[in-house]
Amino acid sequence: MLRLALLTCLLVAGAVLAAFALLGGDDRPELGAAVVPGDPFAWASERDDEFVARATAGHSHVLYEKSPGGVVATARRVERWRAEIDELGDVTEVDPEVIEAMVFLESAGYPDARASDDLEGAVGLTQILAGTATELLGMRVDLERSERLTRRIGRADDPGRVRRLEERRRAVDERFDPRRALEGTARYLAIAEEHFGREDLAVASYHMGIGNLEGVLEAYGEDDVSWSRVYFDATPSAHPRTYRLLAGFGDDSATYLWRVYAAREIMRLYREDRDELRRLARLQTAKASAEEVLHPRDRTEVFDSPEELEEAYRAGELRPFPNQPTSLGLRRDRDMGELAPRLDAEPELYRGLRPEAYALALYMAKGVRRLADTRAPLIVTSTVRDRRYQRLLERRNLYATPAYSLHTTGFAFDVRRRYVSRAQAVAFQYMLDRLQSLNLIAWVREPGAIHVTASSEARRLVPQS
Questions:
Q1: Based on the number of CB atoms within 10 Å of its own CB, is 42 exposed (0-12), middle (13-18) or buried (19 or more)?
Q2: What own/partner pairs with CB < 8 Å and gap ≥ 24 does 165-173 have?
Q3: Where are the domains of the chain?
Q4: What's the mean pLDDT when you consider all of the chain?
Q5: Rg of the Cα trace of the chain?
Q6: 441: which strand partners?
Q7: Considering only the top CATH level, what class is 14-111+177-259?
Q8: Rounded CA gap, 120 and 131, in Å?
Q9: What is the pLDDT of residue 267?
Q10: How many CA atoms, within 13 angstroms, populate the side-chain half-sphere of residue 59?
Q11: Among 155-169, 198-212, 395-409, the least confident range
């Protein structure tokens, strides 16, 4: 959503500020971009492209999950505007693929899309605010007449009458005119790119507003920087004021660029490899997270029985999950593996993870401890299972899937949603968000736990012997 932000980001939500204060605020020592010492996923300039690609992949799921009619149908609607977008690109030198991606993200290709019933808010193909349209982009917006026509359109039942009313509305509110909306967005991006000197910053400002982005860059201390540097380098401990501003938006402004890039990749696949797009769509919508994208069923080993788990431990494909909360920052729930006796198996078989998943759990715990300044551990309630154990669990747990469970691969674990302080809860949420942005995990919030699936890319966290 396009925001013309004339106020600074000092007016952030009180609850977020309070939560940040529990992390230590600006009095915390500077740690640099590393979340933990020796962090292999600390941002570095030579890895900028890698971090952009990771963030794009990590924030793709919502586009597949929320696209009206599915991602292929949405891409089809969006593509119909490509000819007009290309014409604008020839005139304005704004990247047509970026504008097309923004149409996908903002309106799913619907030219009459509205964020709310209030027409002062974002409307149209590129979701432009009324104030931004008139004050910055020179568009005609007669709110009173637009609202009156919108009400009449809602009451009309004759298609011909609806079309005539929509034509009249486009004349008095150019945000509903697809051509004018696209021109306005191209004009905005041109203004923002001239102001910030970078396309990525211009796109990022489309959601948060030019004024808000100025405040973020001022807090960071540099203005000629990539958005990936600002986003990944600003942690609750390194650049804490910047992080506080980003967290204070509370509306996904910080991740807007990644979702635009995700939409751009969807449109590329729609044109060049539609079979792959359909495959990803099936995987992305199979669960409430992108866990099956990280580990597709047809490419991932599943443990069927206690005997297969025993063999995996012997082969080093699984490693035990010890109960060492003081040193590891992770406490093993005492009921982990409680159904094992019903399979004539030992509970210890169900207390382990793939080495990369175990390493990621340790990385997460270290980050939470460091950011929250607490020795209290996170409580892990579930790790690896075999399919026989999973079937037993299905009978007593409504949230145990009867389909493909990532627990049966050894890549998934659950963390209880019970924290010793708000500081620990906020630090844990930060780690979840960061790891998702690195495309190292997929996660979902369940009633009693956070279900986390680790990517195979977490192998970089495994200590080298």
A1: middle
A2: 166/112, 169/145, 171/140, 172/140, 172/141, 172/142, 172/145, 172/146, 173/119, 173/123, 173/140, 173/141, 173/142, 173/143, 173/145, 173/146, 173/149
A3: 14-111+177-259, 290-461
A4: 90
A5: 24
A6: 454
A7: mainly alpha
A8: 7
A9: 98
A10: 23
A11: 395-409
Phi and psi at residue 281, to the nearest 5°? -60, -40
CA angle 458, 460, 462 (to 5 degrees): 85
Q: Which amino acid is residue 15, in one-letter code?
A: A
Residue 116 CB coordination number (10 Å):
9
Distances (CA, A) of 202 to 135, 198, 231, 250, 420: 18, 6, 15, 20, 40
- One of 3.30.310, 2.60.40, 3.30.1380, 1.10.150 is the CATH number of 290-461, namely 3.30.1380
Q: Report which residue type is found at 416.
A: R
So what's the pLDDT on residue 340? 97
The number of CA neighbours under 13 Å toward the Cβ of 201 is 23
* pTM greater than 0.70 (yes/no): yes
Distance (Å, whole) CA 132 – CA 63 = 25
- pLDDT tens-digit map of 57-107: 999 999 999 999 999 999 999 999 999 999 987 777 889 999 999 999 999
Best CA proximity match to 257, nearest among 284, 292, 227, 216:
227
How far apart (Å, rounded) are the C-alpha atoms in residues 247 and 233?
Answer: 14
Q: What interhelical angle do 240-249 and 210-220 show, nearest 10?
A: 160
